[in-house]
Amino acid sequence: MAKHKDENVKLGRFISYILRHHPEAVNLELDENGWADTEELINKINLSGSAIDFAKLNEIVKTNDKKRYEFSDDYKKIRACQGHSINVDLNLKPVKPPQYLYHGTALKNVEIIKKEGLRKISRQYVHLSIDYETAYNVGKRHGKPYIIKVESGKMYDNGHVFYLSKNKVWLSEDINSEYLIFE
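^ Probable RNA 2'-phosphotransferase, sequence as received from the core. Prediction below:
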């Protein structure tokens, strides 16, 4: 059972790599909205040396703790919900954020963030969390975690746009340090 779970995690990371960053790694094309043909994705993953079928792909999508992927209603297409470093239009609608959101990072990044603010760098958006705990879990993936409180309500009132992805990650363009609270 543990081997099965580890295998699914490894395959899930590979799927994320393909759908969010490098579809060309398996010679796959995404449409302008980030959708890939499900059957083609399965075939191309199998040709790359990993073993997957629809049942395994469906299990990975359903059990992914971050809910990174979604199927179209007919399951013929699949895409990542957010986190792309490639240009895709997820058709996100602007949403009014709560008063505060949180950004998890590593302590080693704090000084540069104080100077430059939060930058999307290679991603389409800056990723923000609704709660401290989620941001902490994100931050610890990068080193000693540090949580930055974002004055999202104030930003919104000043004309900044926010989006909420299907997997409940808040997204924004770059955020100036004037809206960041370092505690």
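Residues 68 and 78 are 11 Å apart (CA to CA).
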